[in-house]
Backbone:
């Protein structure tokens, strides 16, 4: 998940002007850690600290990281568990899968 931060932030910056788009992140890290990471990586999207149990519930206990596209009615349209450490693969996945899923709804 840390490896994806730069590209996720870029995705957010690309889509934040779309009226039907909202990007949020959930973590079980405490708020002070979140703030330190936000500053270190220049993250501009919302990050919410929740309990580890709630993180598990939100990820449907499938592991981390989990990427989801949810439509305006709250239905999950896309869900993928796991990530990559390869920055080019991350960029490719985000802008060929997540981006089209986000703007097509």
Residues:
């Amino acid at each position: 998940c840390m490896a994806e931060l730069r590209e996720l932030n870029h995705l957010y910056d690309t889509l934040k002007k779309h009226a039907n788009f909202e990007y949020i992140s959930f973590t079980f890290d405490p708020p002070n850690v979140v703030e330190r990471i936000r500053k270190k990586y220049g993250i501009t999207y919302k990050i919410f600290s929740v309990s580890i149990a709630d993180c598990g519930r939100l990820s449907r206990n499938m592991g981390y990281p989990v990427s989801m596209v949810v439509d305006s009615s709250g239905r999950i349209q896309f869900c993928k568990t796991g990530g990559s450490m390869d920055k080019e693969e991350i960029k490719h996945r985000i802008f060929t899968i997540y981006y089209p899923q986000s703007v097509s709804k």
